[in-house]
Amino acid sequence: MTEPAPEESPPPGSPPPPLPFWPALAGEFVGTFILVFFGVGAVNAAIATGAQTGLWQVAVVWAFGVSLAIYTAASLSGAHINPAITAMSAVWNRFPLPRVLPYWAAQTLGAACASLVLYALFAGAIAEFERQHGLLRGAPGSELSAMMFGEYFPNPALFGTGEEAWRVISERAAFMVETIGTAMLGFLVCAVTSDRNTARPPVWAQAVVIGVGVAAIMSVLAPLTQAALNPARDFGPRLVSYFLGWDEIAIPGPRGGWLTVYIIAPTLGAILGGGIYKALATLMPRGEGENPDKAAE
User: Fold this and answer.
1) Residue pLDDT, tens place only, 30-51
2) Which stretches within 226-264 are classed as H helix?
3) pTM reported for the whole predicted model
4) Which member of 25, 62, 175, 279 lies 3.0 to 4.6 Å from 39 by CB, making a disulfide possible if both were Cys?
């Protein structure tokens, strides 16, 4: 009998084999669920109960949520937990195109399910908040409660609602804010995970660094747009709030723009940030046996 031929290792520079399909979708669902449960949950707690004081306290909870979500999902799916990061990986890192839409669906479903759980927990507190502030759910001004789920520009908690508040930032400027913020996030994810970066943190610390980066970006941009940086984080909760009575205040929103500002802009931004890092990485020395296309897998 002849011995079986040894398995050949993939040539340097080839993309890693894809993770098993259904476990990967489960990872994206659970990871995004955790992300939204802690992040959007912090927004619910801050607005409805006053549990968090100030933007930075909410941003820190987001940092923990992002880190825990990555630790949970990384081995199953690569922990994209964000449609914008999935798009970036497909464009720059050879992520399989047939998996893009399933990843997006799993991420959005995870975000929506987490929002339903949060509403079940905070429904009474939200109703009391609306009573105290004279808000009729779905009527003009109810962005003050709807913002616990979907997002608005400018931040209603800081600037209020209506045309006077809208003068703070235009739809075009809000599009730029979300594009630049998510470009920073995409760039950071690539820098933290890429083999080309010899100063990248060890694997166990990468999730923490990314979480801190998200908190830092939010601390700068959340006053303007609430800093979505993630289409699933916005659309899943926004869709839930639409069916819970916020109606047109949720979709399309009192001034429109949710599709361009919170879906299209973050997706373009992540692709832009990944492309900038990829261009910069060509200037870095290449290690032996390194996969130059590996970044945020």
Assistant:
1) 999 999 999 999 999 999 999 9
2) 231-241, 247-250, 258-259
3) 0.90
4) 62
Distance CA 103, CA 216 (A): 26
| 240 half-sphere exposure, CB direction, 13 A CA radius | 27
Task: Identify the DSSP state of 99.
Answer: G
Q: If DSSP codes are grouped into helix, strand and coil, which group holds residue 139?
A: coil
Contact 241, 143 (CB under 8 A): no
Amino acid at 211: G
DSSP reduced 3-state for 51: coil
Set out the domains of the chain in order of their start, with CATH numbers. 21-281 (1.20.1080.10)
Q: Which two tokens stand for residue 235?
A: 């659309």
Compute how many other C-beta atoms are within 10 angstroms of the C-beta atom of residue 111: 32
Taking only Cα atoms into account, the Rg of the chain, rounded to an integer number of angstroms, comes to 20
Burial of 119 (0-12, 13-18, 19+ CB in 10 A): middle
The mean of the pLDDT values for the chain is 91
CA angle 15, 230, 88 (to 5 degrees): 25
**All residues at 6 or more sequence positions from 254 whose CB lies less than 8 Å from its CB, including other chains:** 140, 143, 152, 161, 248
Whose structure tokens read 């399989």?
Answer: 96
**Which residues are CB-neighbours of 75 under 8 A, at least 6 positions away?**
27
